[in-house]
Design brief:
The chain has one domain: D-Maltodextrin-Binding Protein, domain 2 (3-Layer(aba) Sandwich). Helices cover 44% and strands 16% of the residues. It is built from five helices and five strands, in the order H-E-H-E-H-H-E-H-E-E. Strands 3-2-4-1-5 form a five-stranded mixed beta sheet, with helices on both faces. It is globular. The chain starts with a helix and ends with a strand. This is Phosphate ABC transporter substrate-binding protein. Keywords: Signal.
């Protein structure tokens, strides 16, 4: 019995570690003219320093739920900040009237559908969720 618990614990830790190392992909609508974006450009959007794509078009931001592992990975890799630090930045920007935080959606599928439906949208998902309905512009 004890060895079964140990084996289950090891399996759970292995799966958690595999999820933590998953690739995150920044996606846009296929009609968006951007072929690629840099981490700096994505960070500017997701930290409220810019509200437009490099071509000048307005951006509509999609975010993952706070409980999603992909959210923490995204903010660490794209912005160099934790998800909590980014949330604090948006709270300050919202309070001062200088920005509107990204729309929080429930799943990768919801983010993908949101981006696929709006030519101005940008979001991020686990790399396994990317398909032809969206265009990948940055792999983190």
């Amino acid at each position: 019995m004890r060895s079964l618990k140990t084996m289950l614990s090891v399996c759970a830790l292995t799966l958690a570690a595999a999820g933590a190392n998953a690739d995150v992909v920044v996606i846009v609508n296929p009609k968006n003219p951007a072929a690629s974006l840099s981490a700096e450009q994505v960070a500017a959007l997701y930290l409220g320093n810019s509200s437009q794509f490099p071509d000048g078009g307005a951006a509509t931001l999609a975010d993952q739920p706070e409980s999603a592992a992909v959210r923490g990975t995204f903010y660490e890799k794209a912005t160099g900040r934790s998800a909590a630090q980014a949330k604090a930045t948006w709270a300050r920007l919202t309070f001062t009237g200088k920005g509107t935080p990204p729309k929080e959606l429930k799943t990768d599928a919801d983010v993908k559908a949101f981006v696929a439906a709006d030519p101005k949208a940008i979001g991020y998902v686990d790399s396994s969720a990317v398909d032809g309905s969206v265009k990948a512009v940055l792999k983190l």
